[in-house]
């Protein structure tokens, strides 16, 4: 609440799906837990996070280009079922 300055007050992250930069608050943080990519709804889960727009188009793009394992520094494919379900339920099918 300190004005609209272009400072670190509004941190930006890159969406792993569409590769566009967006305010951290507009993106969904995801972390990997036991080989599964899960949404970090409170932004409090430990470990490396990957940011994606909470939209199926971005999620699908990220999956297609294997952006999650790369961003999260884990080998092999990740299960994104929980993440997909979350996006579908909270943001609709677009
Ligand atoms: Zn995106």
UniProtKB/TrEMBL annotation:
The keyword Translocase does not apply. SUPFAM superfamilies: YlxR-like. One of its GO terms (molecular function) is DNA binding. Keywords: DNA-binding. It comes from the Bacteria. It holds the Pfam family YlxR. Residues 13-77 form the YlxR domain. Coiled coil: none annotated. This is DNA-binding protein. It comes from Streptomyces echinoruber. The lineage of its organism: Bacteria, Bacillati, Actinomycetota, Actinomycetes, Kitasatosporales.
């Amino acid at each position: 609440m300190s004005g609209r300055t272009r400072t670190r007050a509004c941190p930006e992250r890159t969406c792993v799906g569409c590769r566009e930069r967006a305010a951290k608050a507009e993106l969904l943080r995801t972390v990997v837990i036991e080989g599964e990519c899960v949404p970090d709804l409170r932004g409090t889960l430990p470990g490396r996070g990957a940011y994606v727009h909470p939209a199926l188009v971005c999620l699908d793009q990220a999956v297609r280009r294997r952006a999650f394992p790369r961003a999260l520094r884990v080998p092999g494919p990740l299960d994104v079922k929980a993440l997909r379900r979350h996006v579908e339920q909270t943001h609709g099918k677009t």
